[in-house]
Design a protein that fits this description.
Blueprint (H helix, E strand, L loop, with lengths): L12 H12 L3 E7 L6 E10 L5 E6 L3 H8 L2 E6 L12 E11 L6 H11 L12 E14 L5 E5 L10 H18 L3 H8 L9 E6 L2 E6 L2 E6 L7 H13 L3
Antiparallel strand pairs: 1-2, 1-4, 2-3, 3-6, 4-5, 5-6, 6-7, 8-9, 9-10
């Protein structure tokens, strides 16, 4: 039972979905680490993508202060959620407490993370392969969601991770599945943008899929859509995307 005096609401499926969207739709975030010199919190800005299991991924220089801090102490917090017009505190935001795991270039999933990161941040191609840059996976441990005034929730880290046995298989077939979908339906991204009321921008395209949903990108805009239930394979994901794009409203 929730403490009657607590400002927290009972965490429900709507809160979990909002938290997942705030984390998975972020292209950048504020990251807080513990400075090894004095133990003070140190905050910086990082580019963010997600791995196939929904775990956030950052690309950082080994020369940066936050990278040196993570090498000493893996604890970090990410703040995601963009304000709009008016009071910035009226907009949802998510603080995710994570444990940072460096991704070695020799690891089996380095290429996957690199591909997914570049799909979301194509300009990072200029420096992604520099020897002093590396990836961290930031495994969520717990999270605090503020959905706006009077809407505070506490979440477990597992609420933000895609728990699916199909993750690896989907990762292998993701690029080919999306190419096939676009070949069959060249206007699928435009139809999705209209159906999902995406911001007016240049051309949209699908930049990532996973068993929980898909991402679309256009310039500086990123749109995340979460399925109601987990997809079982890449074909199932593309079938869901087609239904969303072309079903009768």
């Amino acid at each position: 039972m929730k403490d009657p005096a607590s400002p927290l609401r009972e965490t429900d499926d709507d809160a979990r979905k909002l938290a997942r969207v705030l984390l998975r739709s972020a292209r950048h975030a504020a990251i807080a680490v513990l400075a090894p010199e004095n133990g003070f919190p140190f905050v910086s800005r990082v580019l963010v993508a997600t791995d196939i299991d929904g775990i956030p991924v950052i690309l950082v220089s080994q020369l940066s202060a936050h990278t040196r801090a993570l090498a000493r102490d893996p604890r970090a917090s990410l703040l995601t959620g963009e304000p709009g017009k008016g009071d910035p505190l009226a907009y949802p935001r998510l603080t995710t407490q994570c444990l940072a795991e460096p991704v070695e270039r020799s690891s089996a999933f380095y290429a996957r993370i690199r591909t997914r990161f570049l799909a979301r941040h194509p300009k990072a191609k200029l420096y992604i392969d520099f020897p002093d840059f590396l990836f961290f996976r930031l495994k969520p441990e717990q999270a605090s969601l503020n959905g706006g005034f009077g809407r505070a929730y506490q979440l477990d880290g597992n609420d933000l991770i895609i728990q699916s046995a199909a993750n690896e298989a989907i990762a292998v077939g993701a690029a080919e599945a999306v190419r096939d979908l676009v070949e069959r339906h060249p206007d699928v991204a435009e139809s999705l943008a209209i159906r999902l009321k995406a911001p007016e921008s240049g051309s949209w395209h699908i930049c990532g899929i996973d068993s929980s949903g898909f991402d679309m990108i256009s310039g500086d805009f990123l749109l995340r859509y979460e399925f109601e239930t987990l997809a079982v394979d890449a074909d199932h994901i593309c079938s869901n995307i087609s239904k969303i794009a072309y079903s009768i409203p």
